Amino acid sequence: MAYDVIIIGAGHNGLVAANYLAKAGKKVLVLERRNIPGGQLVSESLGDGFNNVDTLHASAQLRPDIVADLGLRIEAPRAGSAYTCLLDGGKRLTLDADPARASAAIREFSARDAERWPEFVTFMDRAAAFLDAAYRTPMPRLPHFALREGLPLAGLLWKLRRLGGRDMFRVVRAMSMSAEEFTGDWFESEALRAAVSALAIHGVTLGPMSAGTGYTLMHNWLNRGGLAHRPVAGGVGTITAALVEALIARGGEVRTSAEVRNVVVEHQRARGVCLASGEEITADCVISAADPRRTFLQLVGAAELPPEFVWQAQSIKLRGCVAKVHIATDGRHGLPDGTLAVAPSIRYLERAYDAAKYGEISAQPYLEVTMSGNIVSIHFQFAPYALRQADWEAARAVVAQRAIDTLDAQYPGFKASVQRTQVITARDLESNYGLSEGDLNHGQLILDQIFFMRPLPGWSKHATPIDGLYLCGSGVHGGGGISGASGRNAARSIVGDSR
Amino acid sequence: MFELKRTPFHERTSRLSLPQNWRRWAGYIVAGSYDLVLDREYWAIRDAAALIDITPLMKYVIEGPDAAKLLHRMTPRDVLKMAVGQVFYTGWCDDDGKMLDDGTISRLAETKFRLTSAEPSLRWLAMNAVGMDVTITEVTDQVAALSLQGPKSRAILNRVCAKPLDKLKFFRMTESALAGKPVTISRTGYTGDLGYEIWMDAGDALAVWDALIEAGRDYGIVPCGILAMDMARVEAGLFMIDVDYTAANHAWIGGQKSTPFEMGLGWTVALDKPGYFVGRRALEREHKEGSAWKLIGLEVDWQGLEQLYARVGLPPQIPGMAMRGSLPVMHAGKQIGYASTSTWSPVLKKYIALAHVQRPHYEPGTRLAMEVTVEHHRLHAPATVVKLPFYEPEWKRK
């Protein structure tokens, strides 16, 4: 069986790219290492009573244009639930998805901030819309690019201009700012600034005082559609199921438990892949949804690539720092619905990040907590991949303990409800989910690794030094987080190339 | 303060060099010449035997299961086909096919090689070795090297070496002992004559030097500096980095870079070898489309030169050593290239130059002109493109 396209990895970006290509008439095969498709977008049964748990992400949305283009049968995300910040002394700041109700809550902390909140939400939505447009725009391959390549960029600059003088300036300025400075421009209340800053550092190894967290705030705001998660009915795995269903309907194939050992390269051209089983499958074109470092240094191999390129690929900053803790309770956990965040102050968040810098697990972690029945799921930062005491069994216990203690301090009695825990560390993300250094974003979202510098300067258009090998994962422009943008862009770029 | 290094032969060479004209070479100082004029050293290369200190060459030992793979990938030569005891001369390139450096690869054992280079190459080696099971060790300071060049070099070595070298072929190497010290001897050099390079532990350097001088006395051995070697290497059609080409990583602008094809090293580019090597695509393209430039030999027409000087009442005047200044090369009154090194060739009795010439003027037999300065006036002497090398004695390969 000959395929037009082989896609390595059935994560959401791989499946989005596969769907677009199948829609364009290509014969597509998606190969997945694990025994289920989905990559990070999975609702799994982890055993021990953890059934249909949203393993890594509490919510997810593909970009609406992708859902429409592919005719995916995905329920529109539920209206955002509340985002509740757990403060010291049992105080709460609940930011409802409805700006007016959020304002009312903020008023307890600052009347001025309460007034500014609706304007802030509007600004963030517009900034996110600009970013969405940017993620749809192919980035030129700097430093040398033809005028034709620059044209889409001109369109993007026009969109930026249309934000109006003040907002255009704000967006550009905010990107390089820290969340601490950016929120300080808007608000005076520490609680509110910390609540917003928490989203800025979510999933990245940065603190709210790091430059560029203004950008990550917009990025996360875009992908999440605001501060709070919008839960997906039936779990995030239903999105994967819809993508697989659509692909099969278009004549595409997905093979699970089919680990790619290497990309077959002949004369600097990809000819197909070789599976761990030894089976070789040929195709005109291979697209990797794996992270760029894994793709180049493991699947292709440094020997097939120019030395300068290898050096750069080695230098991609992948810095996993997230642990996921699932806790089975007896139901009496006492936690309210919605998204809870342990982010009482900016300093608290920065200190949590400080630990990561020194290879330690945060003593007082930033947590984001969601509930599903008796199961409490916790996003834990920071438990860095580059752990100084590299005893991961002990680290697992420490993470669980600190997560439980932190929540118990807010909800006394929580600890008593705990029955069993499951901890997924950065190490597990690497070994089980194939994420180099456990980096959920396939490369940190930092200023020197975004836009035309993602995945590498000069290689922003999905192509690689190997002809017929492309990238479509989170590590390329549009990526980081769950949106499908990089998968869509890659497919468009490839269809354009082969025309 | 930055201090230039002295080679392990300094104790001898410094006493012998009359003009004390030290030349800087890769962080070392070496003797430019041992006499005030170069004739004695030059003619030793061509008629007897010249002993040259070449320790400053950068040297690397590359060892491990992937050692061959590393050099196969880094250079355009088919290193996988290399036999143990064989030596390859090669240039190597960046991924645009532009020359970074050139040197020799010696296969010391199945999984052990020695690479020489002109420029520090550790970083480039390491960048190319990502993911390979190989260790790279710089041994520039630990390994001393002498070059014994000239028709009598074999006879001298046979007197002092543990085993005769009669069967050692051109560009092969062998382990031996000299003055009781372990050495490796390769039949290589930078003069285009019969010659050998002797590699030894730095601690054995003086013993080996003394033994060679002693054994060579009856054969007219002469310690020789790098200035006389510079004349010989032009006759041999051998170019020098930073003189005849600019390393791609040192070039300020694209126009300063050269490819192996342009440098006349097409014979080292094994486009039929398997797998990727650095610069492969660019070199394949150039091979197909032809080179825009070429390094060629230029022989200045003696009668034409004489005429230019006769106008002012002088006989032709030619510098007695190799000149490293760039001289314009003309065709029909238009500059179409430049000579990078020019020299009087005592053995050929000709004024010759290594020149970079643009297509289509690089075919042998093409009539061009090269700039000469006659009594402060810049004029053009007629010259002919010739095949390199200018001089190749029958005993070089025999």
Structure, described:
The complex is a heterodimer of chains A (499) and B (398). By secondary structure, chain A is an alpha/beta fold. Chain A has 3 domains: 207 residues, FAD/NAD(P)-binding domain (3-Layer(bba) Sandwich); 142 residues, no CATH class; 112 residues. Chain A is 40% helix and 17% strand. In chain A, the strands form 3 sheets. In chain A, strands 1, 2, 7, 8, 9, 10 and 16 form a 7-stranded mixed β-sheet that branches. A 7-stranded mixed β-sheet of chain A has the order 6-5-12-13-14-11-15, sandwiched between helices. A two-stranded antiparallel sheet of chain A has the order 3-4. In chain A, strand 13 and strand 14 form a beta hairpin. The relative contact order of chain A is 0.18. The mean pLDDT of chain A is 93. Among the domains of chain B are: 138 residues, Gyrase A, domain 2 (2-Layer Sandwich), CATH 3.30.1360; 95 residues, Aminomethyltransferase beta-barrel domains (Elongation Factor Tu (Ef-tu), domain 3, Beta Barrel), CATH 2.40.30. In chain B, the strands form 4 sheets. Chain B has a 6-stranded mixed β-sheet. Chain B has a 6-stranded antiparallel barrel with strand order 15-18-17-16-19-20. Chain B contains 9 helices and 20 strands. Chains A and B meet through helix 12 of A and helix 3 and helix 4 of B.
Characterize this entry briefly.
Chain A is an alpha/beta fold. Chain A has 17 helices and 16 strands. Classes of the chains: A alpha/beta (499), B alpha+beta (398).
- Rg of chain A, alpha carbons: 22 Å
CATH class of the largest domain in chain A: Alpha Beta
> In the CATH scheme, what's the topology name of the largest domain in chain A?
FAD/NAD(P)-binding domain
Which range does the strand content of chain A fall in? 15-25%
Mean pLDDT of chain B: 97
Q: Roughly how many Å apart are the termini of chain A? A: 23 Å
Q: Portion of residues in helices of chain B? A: 10-25%
Main sheet strand line-up of chain B: 11-12-13-10-4-14
Quaternary structure annotation: heterodimer
Overall geometry of chain B: globular
Q: What do we call the CATH homologous superfamily of the largest domain in chain A?
A: FAD/NAD(P)-binding domain
